[in-house]
Write a structure and sequence with these properties.
alpha+beta; 5 strands
Length: 144
């Protein structure tokens, strides 16, 4: 049975889940800082085995981002990602000031767009919104 646990993820679990889907390697210090500065963290467990996770980051007033939503390959296709996403969205609803609009954004992994559109997200660019963009900062760029 899959259970969701909130705001109790340790660095080793975080790094292990990231490694399971071949995401960029983080240092333990980076990972701890990321967890410490998250607004909300959800981890799905199968017994005591981590099966997936997701985080909310942002200012908690105007904008929040879904970050690191992933499901371990052994558990993909079982609805775990959907449950995590629903819990992340539920949390953001609880912190949104009544009568206001809050943006909930994400950067989707390649070929995962349909998962998010099924849950009400829109892809950019649109007629009104430009494309999402990214810049990686690392030691190589700092020396240029």
């Amino acid at each position: 049975m899959i259970t969701l646990v909130t705001n109790k993820m340790d660095v080793d679990t975080y790094l292990g889940l990231r490694a399971s889907v071949d995401w960029k390697k983080l240092s333990p210090t980076q990972a701890q800082k990321a967890l410490d500065h998250s607004l909300f963290v959800v981890c799905a467990y199968d017994g005591n085995r981590p099966a997936g996770m997701g985080r909310i980051v942002g200012d908690g007033a105007v904008i929040c981002y879904i970050q690191d939503l992933l499901v371990h390959p052994n558990y993909q296709g079982m609805g775990i990602g959907k449950r995590i996403l629903q819990e992340l969205i539920r949390y953001v609803h609880t912190i949104r000031e009544e009568g206001t609009t809050m943006m909930l954004d994400l950067m989707c992994a390649k070929d995962r767009e349909m998962f998010y559109t099924k849950h009400g997200f829109i892809a950019r660019p649109t007629d009104e919104l430009g494309p999402g963009m990214i810049q990686y900062l690392d030691d190589r760029r700092d020396k240029q």
